[in-house]
């Protein structure tokens, strides 16, 4: 009897612990569920990239044009500095043009006009570079005007390529006070710009770049519209031909009926 009492208490304790665990577990599960819901609400959702990834040709194209703009800016600054350093060549050209026109002008006014023209040309060059930088930004961001930007960059790429060909036939002023090394540096800058411009023409004309700017899609739409217009014209032509054929058949049938009637009348008259 003494050995049976502890054995009877153990199952009672185990059942009590089980009921307590069961009563606690739903609360714990509910708390865990609330925590998971809060985490799911508070956790930031990953942002989807609205702009597609740039193709390799577009990346090369934009980097090359960025290089062109930077080097061309350095070239323009150096060109303005050299012109301000020794404006004798420009002064001689201005004096010769004034002499040909037969007008008299003072030397101070002549110098003012020469320096003013140098500064004005420099400002125009910087503004053009700013315009090209804006076009490059629009193309890089895949703006709705990206096609226009690529065409404008293509035009200036042709200009820089043509200047590369011309630069080999030019030479500095031998009577100038400017050291020759500056002319060499300026010429090398123009060569770098020209070579990079040739590469931009290559990468800018690829189908990947045209597809990125939306020009390829526009070309496809124009082709589809042209085909649809050709199909409409062909359909109208077929309808006109069918109408003419029907009119001819109607006329022929009318003539045959008239001939039959005339034949009947002649037969009746003979009788």
From TrEMBL:
Keyword annotations of the record: Membrane, Transmembrane, Transmembrane helix
Biased composition, class Basic and acidic residues, residue ranges: 223-233, 242-271
Biased composition (Polar residues): 1-25
Segments of this protein annotated with the region Disordered: 1-54, 223-271
Signal sequence range: none
Compositionally biased intervals (Low complexity): 43-54
Record-annotated membrane-spanning stretches: 64-85, 114-139, 151-169, 181-203
The organism's place on the tree of life at top rank: Bacteria
Protein name: Uncharacterized protein
């Amino acid at each position: 009897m003494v050995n049976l009492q502890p054995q009877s208490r153990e199952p009672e304790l185990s059942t009590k612990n089980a009921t307590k665990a069961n009563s606690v577990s739903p609360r714990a599960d509910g708390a865990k569920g609330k925590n998971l819901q809060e985490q799911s609400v508070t956790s930031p959702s990953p942002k989807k990239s609205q702009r597609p990834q740039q193709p390799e040709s577009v990346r090369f194209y934009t980097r090359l044009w960025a290089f062109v703009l930077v080097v061309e800016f350095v070239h323009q600054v150096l060109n303005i500095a050299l012109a301000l350093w020794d404006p004798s060549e420009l002064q001689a050209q201005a004096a010769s043009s004034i002499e040909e026109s037969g007008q008299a002008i003072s030397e101070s006014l002549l110098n003012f006009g020469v320096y003013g023209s140098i500064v004005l040309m420099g400002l125009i060059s910087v503004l053009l570079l700013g315009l090209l930088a804006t076009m490059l930004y629009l193309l890089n961001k895949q703006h709705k005007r990206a096609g226009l930007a690529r065409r404008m960059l293509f035009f200036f790429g042709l200009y820089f390529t043509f200047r590369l060909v011309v630069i080999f036939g030019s030479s500095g002023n031998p009577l100038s006070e400017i050291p020759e090394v500056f002319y060499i540096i300026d010429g090398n800058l123009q060569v770098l710009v020209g070579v990079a411009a040739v590469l931009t023409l290559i990468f800018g004309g690829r189908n990947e770049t045209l597809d990125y700017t939306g020009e390829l899609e526009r070309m496809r739409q124009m082709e589809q519209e042209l085909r649809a217009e050709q199909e409409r014209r062909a359909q109208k032509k077929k309808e006109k031909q069918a109408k003419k054929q029907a009119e001819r058949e109607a006329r022929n049938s009318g003539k045959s009926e008239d001939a039959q009637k005339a034949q009947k009348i002649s037969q009746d008259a003979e009788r």
